[in-house]
């Protein structure tokens, strides 16, 4: 399954009521094509008011995954939004950012609480099992094929050394101009 912003919003509202007592704020919902991060929660920090404000949740559609994996990713990010909302000093204290393990004991306790209520196993990171049942989305596969088609390997011989690099046509022209 690939998510839409309306899918994220509808489930956010549903789970906000079910598992977070409706305290999570209204935020933006975004889709990415990140292969490294399956989802992330964002906040802004106001230097003047010394406040942490949750701003968005982004879910990646780089992989097509079963719906329960997309749901656990969303709930994972909702735990972060909850943390930003009720524990802003985990992130900023006395106008300074705090070093904080956002997947530490507090996160694990919240994940366990939601597991008891929902049966959805929320982990700090993507598991091997989740990776194994997920596959590259057709859009991501198309992008990889396109990248192969426009990839260019350049070898530039100089008087004392040679350079070898992988690039695309546009960047190769810039690189060659720089090397000259």
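^ Assign residues to that structure.
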């Amino acid at each position: 399954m690939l998510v839409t912003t309306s899918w994220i919003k509808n489930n956010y509202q549903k789970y906000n009521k079910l598992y977070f007592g409706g305290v999570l704020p209204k935020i933006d919902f975004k889709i990415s094509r990140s292969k490294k991060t399956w989802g992330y929660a964002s906040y802004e920090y106001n230097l003047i008011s010394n406040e942490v404000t949750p701003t968005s949740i982004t879910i990646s559609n780089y992989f097509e995954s079963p719906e329960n994996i997309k749901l656990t990713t969303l709930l994972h990010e909702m735990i972060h939004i909850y943390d930003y909302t009720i524990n802003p000093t985990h992130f900023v204290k006395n106008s300074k950012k705090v070093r904080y393990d956002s997947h530490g004991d507090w996160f694990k306790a919240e994940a366990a609480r939601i597991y008891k209520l929902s049966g959805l196993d929320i982990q700090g990171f993507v598991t091997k099992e989740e990776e194994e049942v997920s596959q590259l989305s057709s859009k991501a596969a198309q992008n990889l094929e396109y990248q192969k088609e426009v990839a260019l390997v350049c070898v530039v011989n100089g008087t004392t050394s040679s350079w070898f690099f992988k690039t695309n046509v546009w960047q190769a022209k810039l690189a060659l101009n720089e090397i000259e």
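The first strand starts at residue 28 and ends at 32.
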